[in-house]
Amino acid sequence: MDSYMTPDFSDQKTLEKYSSAFTLSDMEIFIFPELLYPLVLANIMSPIIWKWREDPWFKDIDKKSFTYKANRIKQYIIHNYIFNLDLSTWGLTTKSKEFERFVGFFDMELLKQSNALFGYEGDKYYFDIDIRKHFGLDKYNSDIIPYWKTETVEAMTAFRYKDNFISGAGECVSLSTLYAAAMFIIGKVPLEKIFLIATPLHSQDFITEKEGLITNNRRIVTKKMWYNGTSLSEKARRALENEKVTIVSHISGHVHILYENATINKDAYDFFSAKLREFLFTELTDAVFMNFLRFKSKYKKLFQYRWECSGIERFIALEKMFEYEHSSRYNLSNETKNLLLKEIDCDEFQLSSIQGKIILNDIEEILCNCTGKNLKDVELEFLKHSGEIPGELISQMFSELSDFIFINPKIPSSEKNYITTLIPNISTDHTRDNIVGEINRFADKSELAGLTLYVYRQMDKIDWLPFVKASVERNPVCFTDLTGKANSEVYKILSEMPDQSIYDNSRLALPDEVWNFKRGDGIEKAILLADFIMQHDSSSELVIEIDNRKVILHSNRNDFQFKSQKNFSKTIRISGKEYRIS
Prior knowledge:
- The protein has about 575 residues and is α+β, with helices and mostly antiparallel strands.
- It has 27 helices and 18 strands.
């Protein structure tokens, strides 16, 4: 078992890791996968989700089934948080800047092979969607990439203060960690059953309760929903169908596609792998085949349906039946198909079979008797009823049908060097105070617990150096928006903002969080102004003196005074990229 040591910030890699615990960009999490689960724990430590339990929406939630809990949580998240992935929220950086930052301890050529924004071309999928145009990056030169910072639950909730937002918001990694925390706090799902899955373009949770459940941004997808052929399931399937899984993160640790060492418990990872593969496979039935035709609409035109009405056989094109689904409470499932047919206008039917179309009823009989048969045998039976349809087209359809009923996930190899690490004991029976206490007790002997305090911004328990570094070097939005203004103008703007942090107690917001949400404690405002001054004059020598409620920023020419509610006594000295805290 590895023992955890107090961070040595004279080591550049360690300093970058702990500094990344504040900004949590997608790239930082890729480089430092050990940062992902601390965000889950930081959200669990936060009072925000625990307050959800007081909402009437969750009344008597502990008495309900897992499915009921999951759906209530889903609806609450849909109502209170939107998906947000614009380029302006957290700003832009450059590939060259990020290369320079990480080149000393990460093989950047491997990064190019695994990260979409750095030229990853491992799947045809990325060519098809034109990755830079898809995210609005085509207007910039190819060196520009977004920061895409993963938000804490505080930042997600604070979006309601941002212009043009009326609720909380977050990107996909933020939503996955929010879901994980909510399923634990509200749904009482043990952390051992919650796995985070990261791909180059997406992040989802896989919860190993019952048949399994996948979170997809704000929504959830059960195994039945995974195969229902709807647009929701199509979007949910996209990442696992097309992308490699780069990280699987769990309370016991993580496994990474590139790193030989894995800290995840091997038994837990084997269980996850088996359970995910079970989720991603279903037997072929007539109902599943109908859902496939809904999913792959180009094959609908191959079929017609025979229906006997008043003793007379009538025929209707399958695509016409799907059209009627949209305006009916019934669908083409076995349970309601006849009710749907009764709603269809009589003149939509023909008395003779439609030339060039396969009669679906005959196929349904094949599918009802295909249990235990392999897909190739079913295809051969199918060809006997395909009439004039070219065999090549049927083979193509069965190839895509195979992909529909079984996805072989491209997850990291289980052949890793597994390292056992110490983790805090966190149970669904624990209160928030129990959990906060447990994480604090383990902070000096468990990297997971230690990093959690940094992600949580527990400034009275952690070293401020990584926070100051992150604030000055990776918060471009505030100084970009304020370009052209004098220091005194920026000070006036900050002074007129509410003296209210989005973080409670002894926790601090980053400059871009202050700027985006137009509020901040005096310490946060002083650091934002220091950030602005340094970006416009890197030769500045700045000192921030924090004396409980009084905060003064000393610059080369002026002093700027703010008020704080955080009760710290600190002195921060900033000179170029040299930071000293006392």
